[in-house]
Each structure stands twice: as C-alpha cells, then as structure tokens.
C-alpha cells in the first residue's frame, strides 16, 4: 500500500518505521528542518509537500501538532487532495475527529490513536465520527490488524477517548500524591510497575477485579470488598505553574541523569519481552 505520514515527530517516525517494516511504500511530509536526519535510514520517501505525500495514497496517518486549528486546516486539505478511496486517519490523543471535520466530508476520517511508540505498543483506538462510514471503520481495523496492532473500535466520541482518560485519571492522582509528599515520583513508579502495571499487562481492570473477588468474582468484590474503596476521596492536583514546576523538578531529579534514548530503549526492551510472553512478539 501507499501510505502518507503527515508529521514526522515522535509518533510519525514510529508509524513510518512500522509501515516501512511491513513493506509499504511510505511518503513522509514534515516542515522540520532536520527531517533528513530524523528519518535516518528508514526506508521511506521524503515528500516535498503534503500534496505530494498524499497524491496517490491509500492511507494517510496524520501526526501533526495536537492543535484543533492545525488539524482542521490539514484535514480540509486531505479531503480535497487525497484519492477518494484513501483512509484519512489521525493519531490525535484527545481531539475527536468530528471537531476537525465540521464543514468537510468526514466520511473517510477517523481517529487511529496509538500509544507511544506505535511500532511497539499494540493498541490503536479506532474512533469514528458520526459521519464515518462503516466501510471506513472496517478498512481501518483491517489495516491496523495487518500491521500486528490491536485495534479497539470505540462506540462514541469523547475527548481523550478511553486510553487517555484512564491515563489522565491515574496521572492526576499520581501528581496529587507527589504534591502531598506521600511518595516521590520514583517511588510512585515502583508502586505501579510492581503491582497495577504488572497485573494490567496480563489482565485488564475488570478481569483483575473479577479475580480479586475470589470465587465470588466481581460480584463479591463489588458488594463486599469494594465498599472501603468507594469511601476514598481522590485528590485534585494543584495545576498552578509553580506547583507544576515543582513536580517537573522532582521527576527530573528522579530520571534527569539518564539519556532519553537509553530510557526509551529499556522501556521498549521490557515491553517487547512482555508482548513475547503474551504471544504477541510479532507486533513490531
Ligand atoms: N507523543 C505521544 O506520546 C503521543 C502518543 C499518541 C498520539 N500522539 C498524538 O500524535 C500527534 C503527534 O504527536 P507527537 O508526540 O509525534 O508530536 P511531535 O511534536 O513530536 O511531532 C509533531 C510533528 O508535526 C510536525 N508538523 C508541524 N506542522 C506540520 C505540517 N503543517 N505538516 C506536517 N507536519 C507538521 C512538526 O514538525 C513535528 O515534527 C499529536 O496529535 C499527539 O496528540 C502523541
Ligand atoms: O501515552 C501515550 O502514548 C498516549 O496516551 C498519548 O496519546 C498521550 O499524548 C500521552 O503521551 C500524554 O498524555
């Protein structure tokens, strides 16, 4: 297939590596001055413009700035210039595509939201807008599955979709606990990695709770054990610039002495080992 990657930053380059690794013809468009260096030895073509990248594309994966104005302008161009059969997919983390397709034909547009980095993380949240056709959804699911991804079709648009709303809930409580001096960032990470993170890499929150209820299952947990949990009042982090700066400094104190590439490689190695243990080792 011919695939256009619009935006070659953290996510776009990872998608480009995955697409090229599966033998697709990939055209990358990005105004970044260091694009040649950023692309490195990836087997992709650097397009001189968005128009050139999408001209005969079968799929467009957009990975530009998370700004509504940007996505609105770009998707108007994609709808006008990409071939009529092309899937127009956005990696957006939180903006439903109905918000950036008002006034244009949104029938071929949907969210294909990955977790970073898409060449390792299997999930793609497939979120159609109300005008996305069923055929577009089917083709998008088929496309992501062909790449060894795990597409999950979500039934209704909400800002942040599912993954980021869950992540946001946990991140906000994590920040609150650090701001309250209950734990420091490294300690909080140790708590998650050695409990919830390990469990949720094997079973999700609902199956985990069902098993937590013992033989009585989720029903027992919800009607007996869960009562003390329902009394918990979660915190509201202080989002002020000063308080945020203090959290940033605490995270930098924990991890700032290690190179980004070294930390990312360690993350990917562990994640790939977990995927291999789950029989998903071919997701790269
Ligand atoms: N970083 C993540 O963890 C993550 C995960 C999933 C989804 N996303 C989403 O993916 C998208 C990209 O995120 P990112 O982290 O890769 O951002 P990024 O800042 O690393 O990359 C964005 C790229 O878009 C390019 N760009 C700017 N204007 C452009 C234009 N007119 N045409 C083409 N390219 C243009 C920039 O030069 C930059 O390279 C966002 O919508 C983001 O919400 C990010
Ligand atoms: O964590 C991820 O990779 C995704 O949820 C992203 O969409 C999200 O932008 C995060 O990077 C930041 O919240």
TrEMBL record:
InterPro entries: 3-OHacyl-CoA_DH, 3-OHacyl-CoA_DH_NAD-bd, 3HC_DH_C, 6-PGluconate_DH-like_C_sf, 6PGD_dom2, NAD(P)-bd_dom_sf. Its EC number is 1.1.1.45. The lineage of its organism: Bacteria, Bacillati, Actinomycetota, Actinomycetes, Pseudonocardiales. This is L-gulonate 3-dehydrogenase. It is found in: Cytoplasm. Residues 2-38, 44-154 form the 3-hydroxyacyl-CoA dehydrogenase NAD binding domain. PANTHER family: 3-HYDROXYACYL-COA DEHYDROGENASE FAMILY PROTEIN, LAMBDA-CRYSTALLIN HOMOLOG. Residues 160-229 form the 3-hydroxyacyl-CoA dehydrogenase C-terminal domain. Pfam families: 3HCDH, 3HCDH_N. Transmembrane segments: none annotated.
